[in-house]
Design goal:
By secondary structure, this protein is an alpha+beta fold. It has 2 helices and 5 strands. The termini are far apart.
């Protein structure tokens, strides 16, 4: 099963400057582990010490925020697209 992951520019240094990755995973948690296997060091940028997504990152599965789905246990299907979007603040 293949899932497409959109990588924001600040994290592309972990993906050899690739803006997208193709990974196999059944959930967001598995996806993060698969990304860490292929791109060592990226998990520490995505997750806090408890393994939860960092507050300043938003993760979307097919345009749905995982916070309103099942969090890291959100199920993934073949062909899904996961977007990693850094939070934007300012004023």
């Amino acid at each position: 099963m293949s899932v497409k992951v959109l990588i924001p520019t600040p994290l592309q240094k972990f993906t050899q400057d690739q803006p997208t990755l193709e990974c196999s995973a059944n959930s967001i948690a598995e996806l993060i582990e698969a990304m860490e296997q292929n791109c060592p060091g990226i998990k520490a940028r995505l997750c806090d010490e408890e393994g939860k997504p960092r507050r300043f990152l938003n993760l979307y599965v097919n345009d749905e925020d995982i916070r309103f789905l099942e969090g890291t246990q959100t199920t993934l299907k073949d062909g899904d697209q996961v977007s990693i979007v850094p939070a934007v603040a300012g004023g």
